[in-house]
Write a structure and sequence with these properties.
This protein has 146 residues and is mainly beta. The chain has one helix and nine strands; from the N terminus they run βββββββαββ. The chain is globular, with a radius of gyration of 15 Å.
Length: 146
């Protein structure tokens, strides 16, 4: 978390999602997550067209309140077999021990990623301080078994 000027989210914007104001709340405990945002929990799978379906849970400080949040999802291909998704929210993450969980689901459908050889994604909760952004790497599952 930085006081530096905001750095734009890497990659191209693929969607914006407004999440309902009904998040779950929980506490991590004293000083567990004071220094960085909590990494998202993510699942991903291919559909029959080779598009990627992504479901992720992001953890936002409870101090953000429970009003609707608009999340910007940006995509960046980081190497030949991995995509990165950066999830930005309309407020910069702040240190906190209490969080609300927001479920976000989106589909990446601009090309056949399965045929391209994509096998992994990394999902970040974007912080304007790149050192403070937290990511989770996830294998993209093939429910068709192929």
């Amino acid at each position: 978390m930085s006081t530096q000027p905001m750095i734009p989210i890497p990659g191209k914007t693929i969607t914006k999602i407004t999440q309902s104001a009904n998040p779950l709340a929980f506490d991590f405990g004293k000083d567990v997550s004071k220094s960085r945002p909590v990494a998202p929990v993510t699942m991903a799978s291919f559909d029959k067209e080779g598009f990627i379906n992504v479901s992720t849970f992001v953890f936002l400080p409870a101090s953000f309140g429970t009003e609707n949040k608009t999340f910007t999802i940006n995509q960046l291909q980081t190497n030949s077999n991995k995509l990165a998704f950066y999830i930005g929210v309309d407020k910069a993450p702040t240190p906190d021990n209490s969080f609300h969980i927001y479920g976000i689901t989106f589909k990446v459908k601009d090309q056949d990623y399965k045929s391209m050889g994509i096998t992994k994604i990394k999902t970040y909760l974007w912080d304007e301080d790149p050192e403070g952004s937290r990511g989770t790497e996830t294998a993209v599952k093939d429910p068709m078994g192929g």
